[in-house]
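User: Fold this, then the next.

Assistant: Folding the first:
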Amino acid sequence: MSKFPKEFLWGGAIAANQYEGAHKAGGKGLGPIDYLPNKENGRIYAMYHPDEAVKKDYGYYPSHEAVDGYHYYKEDIKMFGEMGFKCLRLSISWPRIYPTGEEDKPNEEGLKFYDDLFDECHKYGIEPVVTLNHFDTPMALYEKYNGWESRKLIKLFENYAKAVFERYKEKVKYWLTFNEINILLVLPYMGGSMSINDAENPLQLQYQAAHHQLVASALATKIAHEVNPNNMVGCMLAAGETYPNTCNPQDIWAAKELDREGFFFIDIQVRGKYPSYSKRIFKEHNINLDIRDEDYEALKHTVDYVGFSYYSTKVATGDKELEKKLESEKTDGNIYASLQNPYLERTQWGWIVDPFGLRITMNTIYDRYQLPLFVVENGLGAKDTIVDNQIHDDYRVEYLSSHIEAVADTIEDGVEVMGYTPWGCIDLISAGTGQMSKRYGFIYVDLDDEGSGTRKRLKKDSFNWYKKVIASNGEDLD
């Protein structure tokens, strides 16, 4: 018997700003990633200095055409159907629906595009799992209000959420509000369409923006349940357990504090109120939030499940001298920097590979919230080589197989798990680096880091492997 429940949602994950391209087609407005160059032209710097970046002309912008999912989605979804997907996690581009975020009526061409996309999914028995905001707040709101710094965005997000919930109430059941909502504390431009560079207290600004997003998320959840009581609405955490560097209590506390940076958001979205530990954080960092009475009421509208991304674990130390000494040895893991873990290997991009850490992370989240979990991102970014029109990506199979085994063990631990959607089921533009060479998919897209290529699709060996995994409901991982 399979460890996975019969109704388990096997699938894959993509995002509008990394997949669709067609950045101005059908009346679409621009989003934050539309202003970012690739890694070679300074993408990382641009993320942290958006005020400079938006004034430059980089020539090539990876997101503008991306892998052209806007025109290829029928071909791609057919291939997802061939693999046997039960679901497809994707996002709606907010600026495709409301180009500036402030229009009186939604853009019909944008709505029609997703109508057709969802219809195509259902044609193959694929349930859409839809994220409302995957780093895609209209840039017009950045220019006018500095994005989520402004309370005005709460109402604008409500309008957007209501429009899509009503439009797709017969087509979409599973929703996520904000992608990796805790990224706002690390990359405020991507997470909040905002700059903090001129702020007297940047952390004050980030937590105020976080508050606005949390209220907006709760109100969207309320609307979703009113429009269709069968809607399942989830939150979404960039997850990954933090290990203490040693058993020194200072290291253990440092690990707990780092984990709380993410759990802060989910505590509110699941429990409907600010966690007790936030009082000390705000006091120590001189943070005074504008929270109104109606906000407390709004936050009571809590989510139905917890979605999360998982790529790696982290290592933390409370020894400031040691941390300073090891600063040069830190490795990046899904945006978050970490001390190296001597017990684990790393990917080509320096991310810690820790399948057992997925089981640990999932148990921690479930113990904390007792809500169903959904693994909505997990995957290996790697360089693929075409040999005789074939791609032998056994390294990807090995990575995913070990992580699926960890999910199976987690289910046996008693954790309720809804589904598993590995990231970039088709090759996408990397959000962090803007590269195509950092590939995750079961399907290769002919495109290089400079934007050259035919965008022709090609199945990798992992395509047939994942097809077998789904057909066996997770039993056959060889």
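Now the next one, as you asked:
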Amino acid sequence: MSTTKDFEVEEVGSVPPQRWDRFEAFLRQVAPTALRLSIGLLFVWFGLLKVVGRSPVADLVHATLPWVSRGFLLPALGAVEVVLGIALLLGKPHRTTLVVTAAHLVGTFLVFVQAPSLAWSDGNPLLLTATGEFVLKNLVLVCAVLLLLGLRRRH
């Protein structure tokens, strides 16, 4: 078993450690791009569904932001998502793109404040509904965008 900076790695079979080192170096090179492209694709896809009025989360969005006109909210939010997604897909995103993307994702947590009955079973914040799980997973996406923001400085 070898120790790395953050965790222990058990050697797999008879693969020489040098081969694993090369593989990990390869992952360090491609993972940020794969992460950026996958987030960009999700934003374009989900945004387009909102723009064309076919989003399965339309009612959730309206319950979260009830003071914004239904006819305006979904297409406008979708358009913003498409623009952010395209910016992520096109290449090295500007700091502003990453910050706005992270802020947008953090905004999804308004569900827990504005429509908690949709997120929690029986008012218990430990018992998430499917909607609550759907929103809470955005915590991972926020962290992914923050990682891209942190890596942006290195390159």
